[in-house]
UniProtKB/TrEMBL annotation:
Protein name: Amine oxidase domain-containing protein
Amine oxidase domain residues: 11-280
GO MF term list: oxidoreductase activity
Database matches in Pfam families: Amino_oxidase
Length: 420
């Protein structure tokens, strides 16, 4: 039995804890005040009733989340079908549409606008071109370079593909210009986004995503320390010292760094050159999420209201700007419109704000994608293991897989350490 510290209580850390706690003495350190990371369900009490509203992780599907789905099945956590529609609306002109048959023609002016027709034709061409890129086996350039070389229209670029990609990765729209195009194409293909057929059935967790956090932590809840940010992780010859803020260092045999790459890099007092190099390849960007009931953040036309609603701004921000329709996503029969908006706090009526949360998401570059392939070179080396969704696409399934991969690397290193 090893004494193992797990730093970070998001999906990666909880997956590692779930696998390790039956056979090892685990201690989980979480910097935040709650367990779950991007799984953050807010209990809202209104005159209409009590509602559990998700604000970070919301959806999954069987096809693209097989390991997380098995995880939920193992825990006995129920899911329900939902729909993942997308809309775009402008705050400075009368322009909006949604990716549904009615939403595409919801604004009569679009129907007779040649630029709008070109935008739709470019979408069909882009989907075809992405499939060809994947079949070629080439890595391809950045998204911006690809769009420039392909002669795609300005409307398609700035009113469709960049908003869509920015929404998927909660990323700066301008920053999407440097996004690896093959990375995007692979994700879009896997999620049925390069066509209009063969799309997965999306699900949400019945009663809010907190249900799975409660279920998985039940056996080791007494081993979790919240509001305990770790300031230092130091390798010594016979142990690893973990130093939480304002507390004495504790000795462990192994450490799982299940936090963001920039956080892990800052904690390590004596990283190897390779650890420093690979972790530096994953920058993160802060995003402010607000749970509220201000329906003025939704599209003007009700037929354009979707699960994901992107905002085009007169003065663009270096951040994604999107509003999630939570009644729609979670099948909430509430009379209030529960919404989660990223990075548009100033436009929300303060009287309708329920909760404000700070999240951070990985920024993907070609250097980061290259670093992902080298996970096994540092994870498990000299008793420190690395887990986090940033090692893959950045979603819940990726957090689970990264933890499982880290534990596989751990076993490999243990086998290598046993004398023949």
């Amino acid at each position: 039995m090893s004494k193992i510290a797990i730093i970070g209580a998001g999906i990666a850390g909880l997956t590692a804890a779930h696998r390790l706690h039956p056979d090892h003495e685990i201690t989980i350190f979480e910097a935040g005040a709650y367990v779950g990371g991007h799984t953050n369900t807010i209990d809202v009490r209104t005159t209409s009733g009590d509602w559990a509203v998700d604000t970070g992780f919301i959806v999954l599907n069987d096809r693209n989340y097989p390991n997380f789905t098995r995880f939920l099945d193992e825990l006995g956590v129920a899911t329900q079908p939902t729909h993942m529609g997308f809309s775009v609306s402008s705050d400075h002109e009368d322009f909006e549409y949604a990716g549904t048959p009615r939403g595409l023609v919801a604004q009569p002016a679009n129907v007779v606008n040649p630029r709008y027709h070109r935008m739709i034709r470019d979408l069909l061409r882009f989907n075809k071109d992405m499939r060809a890129l994947l079949e070629s086996g080439e890595d391809g350039p950045s998204l911006g370079e690809y769009l420039d070389a392909g002669g795609y229209s300005e409307w398609f670029v700035h009113r469709l593909i960049v908003p869509q990609a920015s929404a998927v990765w909660s990323a700066d729209p301008a920053g999407m210009w440097a996004f690896p195009v093959r990375f995007l194409a692979e994700f879009f293909r896997n999620h049925g986004m390069l066509g209009f057929k063969d799309r997965p059935q999306w699900q949400t967790i019945v009663g809010g995503s907190q249900r799975y956090v409660d279920a998985v932590t039940r056996p080791f809840a007494d081993r979790i320390h919240t509001s305990s940010p770790v300031e230092a992780v130091t390798r010594h010859g016979d142990h690893i010292a973990v130093t939480p803020r304002g507390a004495e260092s504790q000795r462990f045999d192994e450490v799982v760094l299940a936090c963001h790459a920039d956080q892990a890099r800052a904690m390590l007092t004596n990283p190897t050159d390779l650890e420093d190099e690979l972790l530096a390849a994953f920058p993160f960007q802060a995003n402010e999420a607000v749970l509220h009931t201000d329906a003025s953040l939704m599209p003007r036309r009700r037929t354009c209201w979707q699960a994901w609603n992107f905002h085009l701004l007169r003065e663009p921000k270096p951040l994604t700007t999107i509003t999630y329709g939570m009644n729609h996503l979670q099948c909430l029969p509430a009379p209030e419109d529960f919404l989660v908006t990223l990075n548009l706090t100033e436009k929300i009526d303060p009287a309708k704000v329920i909760e404000t949360i700070q999240y951070a998401h990985p920024i993907y570059t070609r250097e980061g994608v290259a670093a992902q392939a080298r996970h096994g070179e540092i994870s498990g080396a000299d008793r420190i293991h690395y887990a986090g969704a940033y090692w893959r696409w950045g979603f819940h399934e990726d957090g689970v897989v990264s933890a499982l991969n880290a534990l596989d690397h751990r076993e490999r290193h243990l086998r290598q350490a046993v004398p023949a």
